[in-house]
Amino acid sequence: MGLMKVNVSAIFLLLFLASRPDVKAESVVFDVTKYGNEEDICKAFKSAWEDACASTSPSTVLIPKGTYLLGPVIISGPCKAAIEIQVKGKLQAPEDMSEFEGFSSWITLNYVDQFTLTGGGTFDGQGKLASNQRTCGKDKHCKLPPVSLKFNFITNGIVHDITSTDSKYFHAHLLGCKNLTFQHFTITAHDESLNTDGIHIGRSKDIKIIDSDIGTGDDCISLGHGSRQITIEGVTCAPGHGISIGSLGKSQNEESVSGVFVKNCTISNTQNGVRIKSWPALFGGLASDIHFEDIIMKNVSNPIVIDQVYCPWNECNKKSPSKVSIRNVSFKNIRGTSRTPVAVQLSCSKDIPCKEVEVANIDLRYTGSEGPAKFQCSNVQPKFHGKINPSKC
Ligand SMILES: *[C@@H]1O[C@H](CO)[C@@H](O)[C@H](O)[C@H]1NC(C)=O
Ligand SMILES: *[C@@H]1O[C@H](CO)[C@@H](O)[C@H](O)[C@H]1NC(C)=O
Ligand SMILES: *[C@@H]1O[C@H](CO)[C@@H](O)[C@H](O)[C@H]1NC(C)=O
Ligand SMILES: *[C@@H]1O[C@H](CO)[C@@H](O)[C@H](O)[C@H]1NC(C)=O
């Protein structure tokens, strides 16, 4: 049986490694295709993961080249040693939402330390169908479609050379992660697909997203409360809604967002470029030490935005100021084109004006015919440096 073969070869590899202590430990490989041949590889994947996770030397769960159906699956650590999932093939989620009864995501990873996800393969969320595309809006009883990749409490990990396509909801969602890097992580979804955020981060620390291409129907990257020390560098975002912090202040006791560095990114044909948003009225919070630098905007509707009257579905009282405090924010070396006349809009809270906002070397041209580009401010007095176009508020 396949299972036997894997274990026997694993033992040989271990013996081999034990006899050569000078050699850097190679991974013990657990190939999912050796764990049965059902059409849905869910069970095989779980069994391979369990064996790999129990390995006391570094291990790899291998999904070889090919296309596989994978039903919703939850895999968890802690594991006995470093573990890698190597996806060479393409994994497809069930198309039908009814298959996700009892699951809020397609693939959930819990409590893994020293984790790697790589292999050049693709996670296809099969969210193209119109029936998957809906939004709950105000409806609190509506069941949200599943997130494609859910990372819960993953530490010291890297996800690289992986593609996520056509998720039904967010592509990747991080919660409680620490020291996790995404590199050469490609996301593609139709620009009209609802809520297909590229990467959403919440309550996580030391997260890097570098050299990655993200195209989706919602925020390319969104940072929820409790995101700290986040680096976003060398990312292209097109299409989508840009790189967004918030929305903050929607619930009680939100943790602050701090230490965000967005650098050397290109944002094209999106609704927003870089944005910080908070709900009016409601609850308090803090967003601080946030820096956007060396960013190219191409045909972006709203390139630079602070929006403290964010209120979709008209769910809130826009007249009552936001209780979220925003401070130590900089926008430097940002150039390109705006698709609407208001190229820069900084709308801060009347109760808690934004503090320590720095704006330097901005060159944003409006490409339409409704007059010159504008720089609008309320409840903020930015410090300006260098050339500022449109002329400063
Ligand atoms: C972060 O995780 C990577 C990948 O596992 C590891 O090489 C690195 O040492 C970790 N950094 C810290 C500060 O722990
Ligand atoms: C900026 O990002 C691009 C990818 O979008 C990369 O090719 C380039 O090397 C980066 N430049 C610097 C100076 O890091
Ligand atoms: C500008 O972006 C809009 C979508 O926001 C798109 O429809 C349009 O084709 C883009 N124009 C160019 C010249 O790329
Ligand atoms: C602003 O943020 C930067 C980056 O985190 C930090 O080094 C600096 O000390 C902060 N400035 C203030 C006045 O807090």
UniProtKB/TrEMBL annotation:
GO terms for molecular function: polygalacturonase activity. The keyword Protein biosynthesis does not apply. Pfam families: Glyco_hydro_28 (PF00295). It is found in: Secreted, Cell wall. The keyword Cell wall biogenesis/degradation applies. It comes from the Eukaryota. SMART domains: PbH1. Its main location: secreted. Residues 1-25 form the signal peptide. The active site is at 241. The lineage of its organism: Eukaryota, Viridiplantae, Streptophyta, Embryophyta, Tracheophyta. This is Exopolygalacturonase-like. GO terms for biological process: carbohydrate metabolic process; cell wall organization. Belongs to the glycosyl hydrolase 28 family. Keywords: Cell wall, Cell wall biogenesis/degradation, Glycosidase, Hydrolase, Secreted, Signal.
